[in-house]
Write a structure and sequence with these properties.
The chain has ten helices and eleven strands. The chain is α/β, with parallel strands linked by helices and 292 residues long. It has two domains: 86 residues, 3-Layer(aba) Sandwich (Rossmann fold); 123 residues, Rossmann fold (3-Layer(aba) Sandwich). The strands form three sheets. The protein has a six-stranded parallel beta sheet. A three-stranded parallel beta sheet has the order 3-2-4, sandwiched between helices. Helix 2 links the parallel strand 2 and strand 3. The relative contact order is 0.17. It binds 5,10-Methenyltetrahydrofolate. It catalyses: (6R)-5,10-methylene-5,6,7,8-tetrahydrofolate + NADP(+) = (6R)-5,10-methenyltetrahydrofolate + NADPH; (6R)-5,10-methenyltetrahydrofolate + H2O = (6R)-10-formyltetrahydrofolate + H(+). One of its GO terms (cellular component) is cytosol. Pathway: One-carbon metabolism; tetrahydrofolate interconversion.
Length: 292
Amino acid sequence: MSADLIDGKAFAAALRGRIATAVAAMKADHSVTPGLAVVLVGEDPASSVYVRSKGKATVEVGMESFEHRLPPETSQDDLLALVARLNGDAKVNGILVQLPLPKHMDEAAVINAIAPEKDVDGFTVLNAGRLATGQKAMVPCTPLGCLMLLRDRLGSLAGKDALVIGRSNIVGKPMAQLLLADSATVTVAHSRTEDLPDLCRRADIVVAAVGRARFVQGDWIKPGATVIDVGINRTEDGLVGDVDFESVRQVAGAITPVPGGVGPMTIACLLANTLTATARVNGLPEPEGLTP
Ligand SMILES: Nc1nc(=O)c2c([nH]1)NC[C@@H]1CN(c3ccc(C(=O)N[C@@H](CCC(=O)O)C(=O)O)cc3)C=[N+]21
């Protein structure tokens, strides 16, 4: 038996299509064009690639893209000044400051300087707190994309045993909040977890976000489980996930590939959040199906 492939690339393309339709309607009916600003500090080649593909996807759905590339030695004050300017720019509805930032910066201070209503990554304390307390929030893009794929595959997640491997602020914690809000029974595992294989064997849903190439093994997986691989690891054999795809696919019911799984969903959800932010700030109805 071999798992079904969850085609994140196709799902993301369909989502971008719906976003493009909604953007066109917003322009035609309200003369409003959503705008997304992406800020990259430094020259990390991988980050540079993501920023370029975000910009391209933004323009393709009819939004305005503003790219700010700053040298690695940029001071935190200069970055904060740029964020303040973008906060006050009416053409900018979403702001993404690419992480990680150079070591001389206080990442939390920079992120929390983003106006919450433009925080399309959902990384500010206010949006994290809103998500955790069940209030209307901007939801982090990668977990939102994973949730969309899980609901599409499983329908209701109520009562499912879900294991999130990884406790980062950008994936693990918000993923756990979203699963909990959908009434799954959620466990969050991490590097200090004892008996991860045993925990994993109980899970109907596994979301792997640990940053270790091919970490999750086939003999850890409950037969028929749904496995979402958030990992992006560059190895000698190319891009691989946090899941050992070849062994896990023999046991799982469904699995996301890397590439072509969660990654494209992250970018599509960034556009979804930008559209949602634009609708909210203009008092327009929020397009359906873009928020949890
Ligand atoms: N503030 C902030 N927000 C982010 O959302 C953010 C960030 N910083 N820093 C870097 C990570 C990484 N990230 C990815 C987005 C898309 C793919 C993606 O589309 N991946 C393709 C493959 C692309 C390739 O070949 O490298 C795929 O999985 O199919 C991957 C990774 C967003 N990030």
